[in-house]
Amino acid sequence: QSVLTQPPSVSGAPGQRVTISCTGTNSNIGAGFDVHWYQQFPGTAPKLLIYANTKRPSGVPDRFSGSKSGTSASLAISGLQAEDEADYYCQSYDSSLSADDFGTGTKVTVL
Amino acid sequence: QLQLQESGPGELMPSETLSLTCTVSGDYMSTNSFSWGWIRQPPGKGLEYIGTVYYSGNAYYNPSLQRRVTISLHTSRNQFSLKLTSVTAADTAVYYCARHVPGTGWYRGPNWFDPWGQGTLVTVSS
Fold first, then answer.
1. Range B69-78 contact pairs with CB under 8 angstroms and sequence separation of 24 or more
2. Which of A55, A65, B10, B24 gives a 20 to 30 Å CA spacing to A11?
3. What is the reported pLDDT for B107?
4. In chain B, what residues touch A34 (CB-CB under 8 Å)?
């Protein structure tokens, strides 16, 4: 049972902008712990996409951006491309669990 | 380039103990103060955090698994391991190991996971 909630799915046409929310509580995101995002294609391991709320690892296109406000965070994909079709997960630390947790996951579909 | 590789039995019977090893390429474990983690993913489901072992050897776990899980560091072999006791069908999953990278903000504990191993499927079935 994750403490971080994401929409099960989002979709958009090529070129559009989509956003994925990650809703937490005052014991994780709201407590100031950073949020990180991962991209996962079927049958492969997750890959770090955004770390420390807004930072992109080397090689990640600048179409991907992250933000955080209050008890929530968001991942935005601008200029949506067919290759962006994947599952996306947020992750943060939770002080009430004294452990990390992953979001419920969001499937992005390119129409 | 840092690489991680999981290894261990792919099938177990209920009530047995799951034992997996993650081998870290290069000399990262003895010369760097990183933490190392395990994450699993049941077929068709989301990611579940299992636990993390600090470079000191201390570990912390997902409360839902804490009674059954042990993560250990084997620095001299560039490995860390996962043991999960009394497995059931609900423990069937792809198990991933990953480096748990320390944060650079106010919270300097382990933050994000990068890189990840390719994962290994463990099936629990009678």
1. B71/B36, B71/B37, B71/B38, B73/B29, B73/B36, B75/B29, B75/B30, B76/B30, B77/B23, B78/B23, B78/B24, B78/B25, B78/B26, B78/B27, B78/B28, B78/B29, B78/B30
2. A55
3. 82
4. 103, 105, 107, 111-112
